[in-house]
Task: structure prediction
Amino acid sequence: MTTLTPSDKALVPFVSVDNMMRLVHHIGIEPMLRGLADYIEADFRRWELFDKTPRIASHSAEGVIELMPTSDGEVYGFKYVNGHPKNTAEGLQTVTAFGLLANVGNGYPVLLSEMTVLTALRTAATSAMVAKYLAPKGADTMAMIGNGAQSEFQSLAMKAICGITTVRLYDTDPAATAKAARNLSGMGLSVVACNSAEESMEGAQIITTCTADKQYATILTDNMVGAGVHINAIGGDCPGKTELAPAILQRADIFVEYPEQTRIEGEIQQLAPDHPVTQMWEVINGTAKGRRSPEQITLFDSVGFAIEDFSALRYVRDHIEGSGLFIDLDLLADPDDPRDLFGMLQRAAPA
Ligand code: NAD
Result:
């Protein structure tokens, strides 16, 4: 990790939404998705040395607010993220987030960043990094079911990292499909708007489900899923919030990030607690098998894990050095005499 050099050691570099968007355009969205996937894959390779815990969730009738911490022993990170499916109807995002990295040695934060845009990028980069290991060889077409905030990112990452050339869009709200089709035009993908989930899956080797509904939804039924496909299930990520019929899970080989969290939040909450799953870090390190045959149905039961956010923040920290795309935030009290916090407050009193 490079060292940022704020003008004062107590100032914390802060990446705003505006600066995050500038950073994406400065790097280029596809190179950034590839770069993020490389950082995430590198951290999955050293999975065992990270602190790991299921994220700390505060549920309400409307949604969830979560904290996602981890550490590699040198750097600590966490993300604050919400998930409120009803928000879009009120003109708000379903998912918003911000996150922080800190120096384990002294506990001082070294980066604070927006993570709403960054979460969309890291989720897409993770999906594509995983699909690289699990999707059938030569996959060129993806069904994209759920055309909300994440959908264009998911589509572009599958293009940039897995080489898909066609994306087939479907959403229960045609306006969402029209938005995604508009945004993806001119991005080097052939884009097909579809009228049903079944239609979107025609000829698709990769099926991404990325819908938002706080219920056991059935976006895919068993009869819709043929042999040999890879399912990238993104939207089922909370207790009581899933997308796939349980019969699909029984036919698929299931790959997860961190089983302890996925059993609470993922599609597999619908299965027995001892149903076998494979951890992606083991596939990446070669200690577990990914796709074994062309007929196999592989399922990435994605819920989003703290290490992916840590990797994304690490990527941002390494790429803002010298870019001017951050401001120094006066976040930490810094008295000249570390024990004279009160004196510093007294000296700040209005005359
Ligand atoms: P969003 O609200 O912007 O979009 C969701 C879309 O799904 C909407 O356009 C909605 O009309 C559509 N939809 C709802 N029910 C549908 C159905 N039955 N069939 C087809 N479309 C349907 O949400 P978003 O920000 O794009 O997030 C999508 C989901 O992904 C959310 O559930 C979110 O919690 C989840 N998510 C997961 C991760 C992860 O790491 N796994 C990361 C980010 C978001």
User: Anything to note?
Assistant: The two ends are 44 Å apart (CA to CA). The mean pLDDT is 96. The longest strand covers residues 75-83.
